Amino acid sequence: MEILFQNVWLVPLFPFLASALSGLFLFLSPSSIKKGRSICSFISILFLTIAMLISFYSFWQQITGNPIHQFFWSWVTDKNVTLEIGYLVDPLASIMLILVTTVGVIVMIYSHSYMLHDQGYIRFFCYLSLFTASMLGLVISPNLIQIYIFWELVGMCSYLLIGFWFTRPSAANACQKAFVTNRVGDFGLLLGILGFYWITGGFEFQNLSEKFFNLLGHNQISVIFANICGILLFLGPIAKSAQFPLHIWLPDAMEGPTPISALIHAATMVAAGIFLVARMLPLFEMLPLVMGIISWVGAITALLGASIAITQKDLKKGLAYSTMSQLGYMILALGIGSYKAGLFHPITHAYSKALLFLGSGSVIHSIEPIVGYHPNKSQNMNSMGGLRKYMPITALTFLSGTFSLCGIPPFACFWSKDEILINSWIHLPFLGLITISTAGLTAFYMFRIYLLTFEGDFRGHLLINKCQNYSSISIWGDKPVSDESEERKRNPGVSSNTLITQNLLYPKESDNIMLFSLIILTIPTLFIGSIGVSFSQNQINFDFLSNWLHLSINPLNNIHSENFIELLQNAIPSITIAFIGISIAFFLYGSQFSNSEIVSKLKNFKILHFVSKYLYNWSYHKGYIDELYYLLFVKSLRSLIRYLVLLDQWIIDGIVNGAGILSFFGGESLKYTEGGRLSSYLFFLVSCMFLSLLYSYII
Fold first, then answer.
1. GO CC annotations (predicted)?
2. Cα(126)–Cα(25) distance, rounded to whole angstroms?
3. Rounded mean pLDDT of 582-610?
4. Could you tell me the maximum CA-CA distance found in the chain, to the nearest angstrom?
5. CA-to-CA distance for 154 and 137, rounded, in angstroms?
6. What residue spans of 590-649 are helical by DSSP H?
7. Which has the closest alpha carbon to 328: 270, 264, 398?
8. Taking 50 as the threshold, does the pLDDT of residue 479 lie above it?
């Protein structure tokens, strides 16, 4: 066992080696890309599977033995500063290792089929393995300096993967937006790390909270400065986990390939912020102001994300705002000190959201040849509908993820979400009201997504009739050519309507590899919630997750869990709210979907009609937050730069250029006085002296 824990660094090393080998193959054999695709994907999946097996084995050894293992090596040694690197494996780290590796393996298997015909297949697996390795390295980091290094690596990989199809302007803009937004949070994180080092003199998680507690108990630190450092440190998770007000990058991140969307939203980038808050929670609990900010940021994010998701037409962006809302739940739970619920929900949400994103990828992959490859077509839910008839397995697995996210028992997210609802209501009733309202909105928009995508009749052909001249864009920047124009070349003299009628295509189920990934993810979506349910045994409540988290480094004593019957009784209001949201979704979208029908239904209810008229635009335009940021930062900065350019041209450059011009004309005028005659020099000298004396006499 000791030999294993001394080599836990192999967990991030294996996917890193897979990334290096894929990149090396791509660099040395660019002409053999097609032949090397299967080799690179096999190496990536194999190496990450080995890392997953090591994670499971270390988890089992922790259960049967010592739950905490850490090792350090000296990195920088000085008289005043000592920096160490190493790894820390405790229950929190082992749970995250299993989460990242299991979801990562499934996403890689799915990606082999999804990206098979893409020109950047090997480059994709190279980035994907590096992304996974960075997250695994972050999870086992024992101190803040090492976690910051891997934090930046995760951000770099997300930049590369969001902008994977970089020739598409929207993808290029999206990756830049994600990069710049996260720079704001990362700068705050760095300042917070340095601030706590200034206070405690160390970076290690094990000693950080203990030193801070002792200093705080003896009044040897400024509470104001400590709160500032805590808020700055929290800026990192705000940006990385897409919390308000730095959430704006997450929906645009859907420009990347769908498997990347699944990995970012389930187990890597957004989970990094949750992990860091959980790791620092023993310290944050000593700062009530910071805990209050964390809880309210989470509550606002949860409600805002759900409010925006209810009107989105893009399938992936609707799921993205769903992720934002669920991340708000997690941050809220940690902010109110509900440690177990705050870590239980990331586990259940990861598998459910990965299932939903991979299911959406299956849908997009199926309808792209019919409606076109532009995201405005292939991801637009108005061009879907009726897909359950053509893709029954995808529909069934997607429905499982939908039930889970809605909080319907016995699916996974029910157990974790309901615990957050109960704990938030106990902590502060107003927070409980926000979480209950968010739960109702979640049920509404998730079933809206499902109904628009899988129920009714297929509407893709209606979009083709409306957009006959709208050609699909190429992800590689080539000149787009519509399928209709190619067909017209093969069949000259045939009208457009005849061509469309003769060549009606319908979606078909994805291949077995993609379906295998969806079916595998359905299993934890159904059963993973059982690890956090408390069962009574001999009048003792047994809860595996709570008992396991008690063994973490810096354990918390306020891990609360309810028994099974009590939890179900307390869940009745939340289940009722969820069914109300589902019922409203069925009322509006359950029958043959038509905007005119919905409008006519809403006109019968003045309040709903008012809401649809005035609040729909607010929700559809994402609360106008992007426009506000554009006005405050982009437009105002450009105006300021214009004024600075004018200042530079006319004031700064004017002074320098004016001095040069004066020197030039002064030299030109004086050169005519330089005749070489001594009498002329004496005349000017005497004249100047006379004028000087006359001026002095007058003064």
1. chloroplast thylakoid membrane
2. 10
3. 66
4. 124
5. 10
6. 595-603, 606-620, 625-629, 636-647
7. 270
8. no
Do residues 196 and 187 lie in contact, with contact meaning Cβ atoms separated by under 8 Å? no
Q: At 542, phi and psi to the nearest 5?
A: -110, 120
* 34-48 pLDDT tens trace: 777 888 889 999 999
Query: How far is residue 669 from each of residues 118, 665, 672, 676, 683, measured CA to CA in Å?
Result: 72, 6, 6, 15, 17
- Count other Cβ atoms within 10 Å, centred on residue 608: 14
| CA 411 – CA 397 distance, rounded (Å) | 12
SS3 245: coil
Beta bridge partners of 72: 86
Copy the structure tokens of residue 451. 């109904």
**Which residues, other chains included, contact 264 with Cβ-Cβ below 8 Å and sequence gap of 6+?**
158, 161, 253, 256, 270
SS3 for 505-517 is: CCCCCCCHHHHHH
Which 8-state DSSP code applies to residue 374?
S
Please give the Cα distance from 96 to 107 (Å, whole number): 16
Strand partners, 395: none
List, in order, residues 6 or more apart from 552 with CB less than 8 Å away: 67, 68, 90, 91, 92
Would the pLDDT of 496 be above 60?
Answer: no
- Residue identified by tokens 């509550």 is 299
Where do we find the tokens 């159904």? 526
Q: How many residues in the chain?
A: 699
The 3-state DSSP composition of the chain as helix, strand, coil percent (nearest 5) reads 75, 5, 20
Cα separation of the two ends of the chain: 99
Handedness of CA 207, 209, 214, 216 (dihedral sign): positive
Write out the two tokens for 279: 């790791």
Q: How is the chain split into domains, by residue range?
A: 1-142, 166-285, 287-467+504-547+564-594, 646-698
Residue 13 in contact with residue 52, Cβ under 8 Å?
Answer: no
Structure tokens, 171: 């993808």
Per-residue pLDDT tens for 230-276? 999 999 999 999 898 999 999 898 988 999 988 888 877 888 999 99
Whether omega before 410 lies within 30 degrees of 0, making that bond cis, reads: yes
Check: CB of residue 20 under 8 Å from CB of residue 133: no
Residue type, 251: P
Q: Which of 618, 572, 578 minimizes the C-alpha distance to 445?
A: 578
Strand ranges (E), 469-560? 535-537, 540-542
Q: Cα–Cα distance between 377 and 367 in angstroms, integer?
A: 9
pTM, to two decimals: 0.85
Closest CA to 12 of 55, 51, 43: 51
The residues facing 540 across adjacent strands are 537
Cα separation, 46 vs 50, whole angstroms:
6
**β-strand pairing of 535-537 with 540-542:** antiparallel
Amino acid at 286: M
Question: What's the CA angle centered on 198, arms 194 and 199, to 5 degrees?
Answer: 120
Q: pLDDT band for position 498 (50/70/90)?
A: very low
